[in-house]
Write a structure and sequence with these properties.
Largest sheet: 6 strands, mixed
Mean pLDDT: 91
Strand content: 25-35%
Strand order of the largest sheet: 5-6-7-3-8-9
CATH superfamily: P-loop containing nucleotide triphosphate hydrolases
Radius of gyration: 17 Å
Distance between the termini: 38 Å
Order of helices and strands: EEEHEHEHHHEHEHEEHH
Structural class: alpha/beta
CATH architecture: 3-Layer(aba) Sandwich
CATH class: Alpha Beta
Low-confidence stretches: none
Number of helices: 9
Shape: globular
Length: about 230
């Protein structure tokens, strides 16, 4: 059974169509890059999968069910916006996640904090933007979820931290789960991807394995993306 499935999924905001009859299927055990220009519908699709938006038409299924209490328990979501309360510390945030999510692995979160040299007693308001993003990702990847939805997980960090974050994603996700990474930093994420979804103007242009693109097109995903979306 697909962990995420869209059937003729559309989402409109007033007269603006953000997603237009999207149909796709994502199987467990895959790392998928959701790739497209700004305003292409990536964040809308991720928010629909997380139950933060409702479809205008069609349906979206998570593990065979519409988003709801069942999906909240198995989906781990990283927003492209900062959401951590400024008065909290990583220790308090871990306490909160441990209370809220049955699948939260406290030991894993503490290990990642230590490896990045982050102080569990430092308040969020005292952290740099990059450090706050690291803490958010640690919390998300410390759940043993079935579906990870990561919206721009490496957008605001330096290249060395980028490498660590991608390694963290691959090492810490359940191999029976799926990871969807929305990003515009294609060359950075390409080494960890199994599949890509190209999206533009709310429509899926391509769903393909990374190996197929390399073999059939004779180019990297980054090169092919630049060709498909050339201005």
């Amino acid at each position: 059974m697909p962990i995420l499935e869209c059937r003729e999924l559309s989402k409109r905001f007033g007269r603006t169509t953000a997603l237009d009859r999207v149909s796709l299927s994502i199987e467990p055990g895959r790392v998928i890059g959701l790739l497209g220009p700004n305003g292409s519908g990536k964040t809308t699709l991720i928010k629909l999968a997380n139950g933060l938006l409702t479809p205008s038409e069609g349906e979206i299924l998570i593990d065979g069910e519409a988003p709801g209490p069942h999906s909240k328990a198995i989906v781990s979501y990283l927003s492209d916006k900062e959401y951590l309360p400024e008065w909290m510390t990583p220790k308090q945030l871990m306490d909160f996640f441990q209370d809220f999510y049955a699948d939260f692995d406290r030991a894993r979160a503490e290990e990642m904090l230590a490896r990045l040299g982050l102080d569990p007693a430092q308040k969020v308001k005292q952290m740099s933007k990059g450090t706050r993003e690291k803490v958010q990702l640690i919390l998300v990847m410390s759940r043993r979820a079935k579906l990870y939805l990561l919206d721009e997980p490496i957008g605001g960090v330096d290249p060395a931290t980028r490498d660590y974050i991608l390694d963290t994603i691959i090492r810490n996700y359940n191999p029976e789960a799926a990871v969807v990474i929305s990003t515009h930093l294609i060359a950075d994420v390409e080494p960890v991807l199994d599949e890509v979804l190209f999206i533009q103007n709310g429509q899926i242009l391509l769903q393909s394995s990374v190996d197929s693109i390399r073999e059939e097109k004779g180019m990297s995903v980054d090169q092919y993306f630049r060709e498909v979306f050339r201005c």
